[in-house]
Amino acid sequence: MRISVEGTQEGLRVRMRFEQYRRRLLITRIVLAVLAVQGAIVGLWATIAPHSWYTSFPGFGMHWIAADGPYNHHLAGDVGAFFLALTAVTIAALVLNSTAAARIAGIGWLVFSLPHFVYHAFHQPMDMSGVSFAFSLVAAALLIALGLACVVLPPRGDIPMSDPAPFNVKFPRRRR
Predict the structure, then answer these.
(1) What DSSP state is assigned to residue 25?
(2) pTM above 0.85?
(3) Which of 84, 124, 150, 162 has the fewest CB atoms within 10 Å, i.e. the most exposed one?
């Protein structure tokens, strides 16, 4: 921990920084933010426009879901709600600003992404090209990597993921 003290007119301004784990904590916050953004995009898309999500996911001219079976409005909406729930847990980890909350969010993503990857690794739809299939596996593997990063990157214990706010120490004024 690095402590800096700066004199002001009213007293001292004290700032503390966690130098030892700074990079690991920053990377954890970035990974949580990436998971939250992608979870929100997929979740909102599948919840608000389930048929569009089914026919167009992930976009860019690829159609990963439509190639894997018939459309089911209920299932598509449930998938969207599931992604939104994971997004809420991930955002809560960012707001709570604690390494324990980051690990819990990471575990949630791992519980989803590991079976998801295994399914896709062993079930290539007939209508899906080899390139599209490879991209889908890479995307599923990235979710595993990001979830795992949230579990293993934060240092042990429950410490804040950002530096504490600076505080001021005021000195009493002298009477004249």
Answers:
(1) H
(2) no
(3) 162
DSSP class of residue 67?
G
12-49 pLDDT, tens digit each: 888 877 667 788 888 999 999 999 999 999 999 999 99
Instruction: Provide the phi-psi class of 166: left if phi over 0, else alpha when psi is between -120 and 50, else beta.
Output: beta
Pairing, β 58-59 against β 167-170: unpaired
Q: What is the pLDDT of residues 114-148, one digit of tens each?
A: 999 999 999 999 888 899 999 999 999 999 999 99
Report residue 129 as tokens. Answer: 């090209």
Q: ∠ at Cα 40 (35, 46), nearest 5°?
A: 125
Q: Are 31 and 157 in contact (CB under 8 A)?
A: no
On whether the CB atoms of residues 32 and 163 are closer than 8 A, the answer is: no
* Helix spans in 68-153 (H): 73-96, 99-122, 130-152
3-state SS class at 43: helix
Distance set, CA 38 to CA 49, 63, 109 (Å): 16, 17, 12
Q: Pick the closest to residue 137 from 153, 122, 158 (CA basis).
A: 122
Strand partners, 12: 7, 169
